[in-house]
């Protein structure tokens, strides 16, 4: 099965609607695959959405490849960007501002709701929830400076949409944000790529060390540099205790993250990581069993995972990540979302 990192998806009521990542990143939407999980629930909106003839084919077969609707493709891409965008200074890919992504996704979600009523019943977030997240703590105003005119336009569209829904409070809030963007606050998206492990102290010795890459599927989005080999670790023997030290470079935001060390699939240590200046770091003392293990095996036999270590997680491979990064780097300027344009403008200003 294709990993979700390669397949933008919209979770509709009673169905999944999938798109090819390469198509969406290239700015085209040709086909979409509708996979039904509950035909009875999906039938009303599917018939309104694609017509009776096409819906009958999908309902009979349980799935169908149909001509793509650009509104759904846009929403699928924005949802993918919020989860999988591979930001990292080592990749030359800037991070995307969450508030701008939330605003764009709110508008895209409203467009799909207007297109086919009932399609997004039970969806992960409503336009109202996405808008609330975007404007919380003035995040949207702070992020809007490079694309203020576009943000004002999206806020005006949302204000009108909320007004149609009789959501007067949010309609007024969207209009207020638009007015405030005449003098926006400076962006706060800068990040630092910090160095790796510090030198060991005199009298201490390194029993094992290595580097690892962060599996995008095991960490929250928008937290860490998406490049390869950003994790440094070592096991240090000292008089007081033997300890495992971990550094993950390229931190964009804080999160609760833990590193897990294992040998032949068996975990033997875990290290809670804390945010520092552009990196996450952590240290944990090893018990006697783990110390003997570290002293008796080659460094290459020790695996270190940052984030969720559950075997049930569908992890990404280095090949998965490289393919996605290549597609992102090839993205044409005219296909970029608002958040991407803001990131590019900010990067140009910095240099």
Provide a descriptive summary of the structure in words:
α5 runs antiparallel to α6 (about 125-135). The strands form two sheets. This protein has a seven-stranded antiparallel beta sheet with strand order 5-6-7-10-9-8-11. The protein has a four-stranded antiparallel beta sheet with strand order 1-2-3-4. About 40% of the residues lie in helices and about 20% in strands. The protein has twelve helices and eleven strands. It has about 350 residues and is α+β, with helices and mostly antiparallel strands. The two termini are about 40 Å apart. Residues about 185-190 have low confidence and may be disordered.
Helix-strand pattern: EEHEHHEHHHHHHEEEEEEHEHH
Rg calc: 23 Å
Fraction in helix: 25-40%
Helical/strand content category: alpha+beta
**Which strand order spans the largest sheet, edge to edge or round the barrel?**
5-6-7-10-9-8-11
| Low-confidence runs | 184-190
Largest sheet: 7 strands, antiparallel
| Count of helical stretches | 12
Outline: globular
Please report the total strand number as a whole number. Answer: 11
Residues in β-strands, percent: 15-25%
Distance between the termini: 42 Å
What value does the average pLDDT take? 89
Topology:
Elements: E1 9-12, E2 15-18, H1 21-25, E3 31-36, H2 39-50, H3 52-61, E4 63-67, H4 70-84, H5 98-115, H6 127-135, H7 139-143, H8 148-164, H9 168-180, E5 205-212, E6 231-237, E7 242-249, E8 257-263, E9 266-275, E10 279-285, H10 288-296, E11 302-306, H11 318-329, H12 338-350
Antiparallel strand pairs: 1-2, 2-3, 3-4, 5-6, 6-7, 7-10, 8-9, 8-11, 9-10
């Amino acid at each position: 099965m294709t990993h979700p990192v390669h397949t933008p998806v919209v979770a509709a009521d009673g169905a999944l609607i999938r798109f090819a990542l390469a198509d969406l990143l290239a700015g085209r939407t040709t086909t979409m695959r509708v996979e039904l999980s509950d035909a009875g629930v999906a039938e009303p909106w599917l018939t309104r959405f694609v017509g009776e003839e096409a819906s009958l084919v999908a309902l009979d077969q349980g799935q169908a490849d149909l001509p793509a609707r650009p509104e759904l493709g846009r929403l699928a891409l924005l949802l993918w960007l919020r989860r999988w965008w591979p930001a990292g200074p080592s990749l030359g890919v800037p991070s995307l501002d969450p508030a701008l992504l939330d605003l764009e996704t709110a508008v895209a979600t409203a467009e799909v709701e207007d297109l086919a009523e009932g399609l997004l019943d039970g969806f992960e977030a409503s336009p109202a929830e996405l808008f609330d997240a975007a404007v919380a703590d003035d995040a949207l105003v702070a992020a809007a400076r490079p694309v203020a005119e576009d943000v004002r336009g999206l806020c005006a569209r949302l204000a009108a949409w909320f007004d149609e829904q009789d959501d007067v409070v949010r309609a007024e809030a969207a209009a207020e944000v638009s007015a405030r963007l005449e003098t926006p606050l400076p962006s706060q998206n800068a990040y630092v790529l910090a160095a790796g492990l510090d030198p060991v102290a005199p009298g201490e010795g390194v029993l094992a060390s290595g580097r690892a890459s962060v599996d995008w599927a095991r960490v929250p989005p928008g937290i860490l540099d998406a490049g390869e080999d950003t994790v440094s670790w070592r096991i240090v023997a000292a008089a007081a205790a033997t300890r495992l030290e971990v550094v993950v470079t390229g931190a964009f935001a804080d999160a609760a993250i833990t590193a897990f060390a294992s040998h032949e699939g068996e975990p033997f240590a875990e290290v809670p990581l804390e945010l520092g200046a552009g990196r996450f770091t952590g240290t944990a003392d090893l018990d006697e069993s783990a110390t003997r293990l570290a002293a008796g095996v080659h460094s290459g036999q020790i695996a270190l995972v940052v984030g969720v270590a559950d075997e049930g997680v569908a992890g990404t491979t280095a090949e998965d990540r490289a393919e996605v990064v290549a597609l992102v780097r090839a993205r044409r300027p005219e296909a970029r979302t608002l958040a991407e344009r803001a990131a590019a403008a900010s990067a140009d200003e910095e240099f």
